[in-house]
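User: We ran a pulldown and think these components assemble together. Before we commit to crystallization trials, I'd like a predicted model of the whole complex to look at. Sequences follow.
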Amino acid sequence: QSVLTQPPSASGTPGQRVTISCSGGSSNIGSNVVNWYQQFPGSAPKLLMYGNNQRPSGVPDRFSGSKSGTSASLAISGLQSEDEADYYCAAWDDSLNGVIFGGGTKVTVL
Amino acid sequence: EVQLVESGGGLIQPGGSLRLSCAASGFTVSSNYMSWVRQAPGKGLDWVSILSGGDRTYYADSVKGRFTISRDNSKNTLYLQMNSLRAEDTAVYYCARGTRGYSYGSRYDSWGRGTLVTVSS
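Assistant: Here's a predicted model for the assembly, 231 residues in total across the polymer chains.
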């Protein structure tokens, strides 16, 4: 199955802003919403952002999402140590008739 | 409270079959689209299958023809029948609940803890 393209890693010091990109195509990001998941080692993924830029209840507002054309991004403002995790973007693909995930980005707080 | 509990994983030889179960509570599985998502050791998330709100099923190319997703409304349980298993199917398999009100999509608001499937001789 095709994947959305994410950088394998990103890092920052506490308080910094970190941005994770997610690049796709016309059949997925270009025509459907993007959702983001956060996953800690040994735990199940958790929905972090839905509908490109909507935060579920309980998600801090330092997390924000955006989409433009066939790309999306997740930003973490005011990075905190507890944000150290893996982050995945996901979108429905109209050509594949299925969900595709990005390869994941490991965020490290220096 | 919404809860998803997977079971049925284990060690299986290549070519063998397993059936995974996902017992749901706090909601009705027929009211939401439901999916299986897997994660190989040390790897990223890999979507496997979806049972849509309209009872349509879709599969990743890697499992098409070998895996079957289904549900039993009387038991409020989602299943994944896995046949002709291969070493590359080794992964933690998660059950995930899609958003109510949509037939399909990539928004999963609840996940189980997963069950490990190991395919090895």
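The CA atoms of residues 48 and 93 of chain A lie 20 Å apart. That may be worth checking against your pulldown data before setting up trials.

User: Thanks, that helps.
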